[in-house]
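All the exercises in this workshop are built on plain-text protein records. An example says more than a description, so a record of this kind follows:
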Amino acid sequence: MNLFAQLTEKPWAPMKSSVVDLRGGSTFFMPPAKLGLRVFFAVASVLFFLLIVAYGSRMALEDWRPSPRIWLLWINTAMLIASSISMQWAQISAHRGDINGVRTGLMAGGAFGAAFLGGQIWAWLQLNAMAFFNISNPAIAFFYIITVLHALHMAGGMVAWGRTFAKVQRGATAARITLSVELCTAYMHFLLLLWLVLFGLLFSGNDNLGILLTLCGIR
């Protein structure tokens, strides 16, 4: 900087600077709905993890008697897997702009999801009709608590599915509902993963007690 520039400087005047647009380029951005869903996943995971720890702690006591194995749960698990696959199909179709594929995937995903919920209700009725049913049995009480809590989460997912399907029926384009389909699909995948863990826990009886207690840090 030369001498003339130094003499004509005005230090009391605000300095001009360029403004950098941080919103452009590769700046990370996540829709609030996706962020909220991830927070929900974290909270729900902690809730069910605490239930699993409590279940494992109760199994370690000598008076524990496992609940009877209800084979209908295998069919219910297959229904939930089919629902998750159908929702994934709907998501792929949305990215491709295929609204007919989205509609078909959503219809199949909702039908299999409803079949899962109906099967869970049937399983509860089967357990209640068994001769040795006793709600005071900790294993049976845990069975109801875990499966009902998961079913409530599933019912919430069906509400979101219904809103998304209603948009499709009202003529929404694939581009407009892509985010909704993605959220529903992610939610269904989460419920499937969660159910596979719970199903293995409830259906194994005392077979995997040692492994469960080790994972929970009880043994």
The radius of gyration is 26 Å. The longest helix spans residues 138-169. Helices lie at 3-7, 32-59, 72-96, 99-129, 138-169, 174-203, 209-215. Confidence is low (pLDDT under 50) at residues 17-22.
